[in-house]
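User: Here's a chain of 62 residues. Predict its fold as tokens.
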Amino acid sequence: MAALFQRRGLPDPCRLEAQFWEQWPAAIRVAVKTRRAVMNNIIWLVGAIVIVIAILSFLGLR
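Assistant: Prediction complete.
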């Protein structure tokens, strides 16, 4: 992926993100990562509920 950006003369987005994170204080980085983890868990939980409801409705148990 990085080679694709280099061929087009664009900076590597992964490297830019790493530089961005290095500039932030550690407490802010932890808060953002924690918030991201909470949001990922919520999305995972909602997806699991939707799948369970879909299976139950397919079986006629809802």
